[in-house]
Amino acid sequence: MINTQVVGVVAFYMVAALIMVFVNKAVLISAPNLTVLFMFFQSIMTVILLHFTALFTSVVTIPTLELATARKLAWLIIVDAAGFVFNALCLRDVEAAFFQVARGLVLPLTISIVSIHSRSTPSWKVCGCALVVTIGFFIGVSPSEELPEKSVPTPLALFYGFLSSMAIACHAVLIKISLPHVDGSSTQLSYWSNLGSAIIIGITAILKGEVLEFVKMSSGGSWDWSVFAWGNLVTGFVGFLMSIAGILSVKVTSPVTHMFSSAARSVLQVALGIRIFGDILTVQRAASIFTILCGTLLYTWVKSREPPPPPPVLPPKDIEAQQLMPMEEQNKTQE
After folding, report:
1. Structure pTM?
2. Quick one: the chain helix, strand, coil %, rounded to 5?
């Protein structure tokens, strides 16, 4: 019998993730010189929506802003802000169908960072999965004569992809370190992270001159700002929903099902990239994506066969953290 809750949550997560990628891409095409400012609007939109949601439910709580807490969360906020920007810069400079390949080192880097932090050695099976994914990445980024010049990713775009992958890998460790500073509350940590990111990214946008550029473009009369405006509204709202859907996707399904849905999403992303933006899919790129997916799915299967770690001990008063924290950690580790 089909579990409609599982199907609904997984389908929503897949659709929301695809909307994020393609709306982001459309906005970055229309205003490539406003990339950092675009990320600022997304972060501030999440903060506003958290405030709005907190008015109607006790599950979402807004933290008290204290300098001492901000200092403890500084590294998480900095990494999140960097991840926001480098992710957008990578998507701006590569084709949507190639985006997964450009960030193909997320899994190997996550395994490495977690291993270094925990001072533990991953099993040879886990290392084997990471090796498969790494091979898939290098298949995708190696030179190809089949691609037209406009479709060839630049070294800088690949570097952005690497930095974005590194930020996601570091986030998997930093979120575990940071949660105790907000009493284990996932929503409070999300609030701190997005508010701090908005401040850092906003200052960066000012120093980079994007705010002045935005004012000039808006007052010039020749720029169609509707794509930028609607794109900010859509990605801000959908991005907020994704933070909930990502947790639910693991909460109501198994991690294996969650990862298979991510694999299906990747295939759809390639197909839609070809259909919407006219991206190029060569045999080499297809082989790269297939290899990365195989390594990722194999890793999920290997981890699912391992005995689960003991659940973290949390203060009895924090019911929200007891419900959400394990799912948040699983979701971040598997991105």
Report:
1. 0.81
2. 80, 0, 20
